[in-house]
Amino acid sequence: MSRCDDLPECGVARFLILLEGPWATLIVRELLHGPLRFTEIKDRLPGISAHTLTNRLRRFEASGLVTRTAYPEIPPRVVYELTEVGEQLRTVLDAMNAWALSVPEVVDAD
Amino acid sequence: MSRCDDLPECGVARFLILLEGPWATLIVRELLHGPLRFTEIKDRLPGISAHTLTNRLRRFEASGLVTRTAYPEIPPRVVYELTEVGEQLRTVLDAMNAWALSVPEVVDAD
């Protein structure tokens, strides 16, 4: 099973596939605060379904952006964490944040 | 009609609204090369429909990211161009590009 070999040459197009859909970027935003459990991620993203979050986290694992660690405790504890490559997304999200906050809030006079 | 007042406080969430959907970022990627006509943008983005492109460009105009200039020529010429705020998206797309090209192409051995 290949993970990235069908990605386009262009980095921007590649980014959009690896982080396809709005929830993907928001999940990364939360994980940039540190490792989180499934319910912790879900609680921070009102509106996301368990199915979508499960699916997205699995795809991140397959792309090598997130690790899933199950601790042999009772009750069992499962923690999701950005890998080093995933952590490097901080530069992209910082750039998004800085740009978006610079966009003037213009209200038409009419 | 307000354009940005219903945007969230968080810059990343705001970015995702202003550049909602994969085509939005790819349209910006093309316009970062300079002003383009509608058909020129469409030809560079195989798979995009005229309807989607029209709608997306209108939303960019409403957000102040793109200008639309009609030249009184025969046949009429209409050119789309990034505004200064739109042009500043270059930093975000550069960050996307750099990060995505750094993601290792790992192929499972099985």
Describe this protein's structure.
Two copies of one chain form a homodimer. By secondary structure, the first copy, chain A, is α+β, with helices and mostly antiparallel strands. Chain A has one domain: Orthogonal Bundle (Arc Repressor Mutant, subunit A). In chain A, 50% of the residues lie in helices and 13% in strands. The first copy, chain A, has six helices and three strands; from the N terminus they run ααβααββαα. The first copy, chain A, has a three-stranded antiparallel beta sheet with strand order 1-3-2. In chain A, a hairpin with a 5-residue loop joins strand 2 and strand 3. Chain A is globular and about 50 Å long. Mean pLDDT of chain A is 88; it is low at 1-5 and 106-110.
What is the topological layout?
The structure is a homodimer of 110-residue chains.
Chain A: H1 11-18, H2 22-31, E1 36-37, H3 38-44, H4 50-62, E2 66-71, E3 77-82, H5 84-87, H6 90-102
Antiparallel strand pairs in A: 1-3, 2-3
Q: TL;DR of this structure?
A:
Chains A, B: Pfam families: HxlR. Two copies of one chain form a homodimer. By secondary structure, chain A is an alpha+beta fold.
Features of the shown structure:
3 strands; 6 helices; 50% helix; alpha+beta; three-stranded antiparallel sheet; 110 residues; homodimer; Arc Repressor Mutant, subunit A; 13% strand
Oligomer: homodimer
The mean pLDDT of chain A is 88
Figure out the total of helices of chain A: 6
Q: Sheet with the most strands of chain A? A: 3 strands, antiparallel
Number of domains of chain A: 1
Strand order in space, largest sheet of chain A: 1-3-2
Instruction: Please give the CATH class of chain A.
Output: Mainly Alpha
Helix-strand category of chain A: alpha+beta
Q: What is the tally of beta strands of chain A? A: 3
Would you tell me which CATH topology of chain A applies? Arc Repressor Mutant, subunit A
Pfam families (chains A, B): HxlR
Keywords (chains A, B): DNA-binding, Transcription, Transcription regulation
GO molecular function, one term (chains A, B): DNA binding
Organism (chains A, B): Pseudoclavibacter terrae
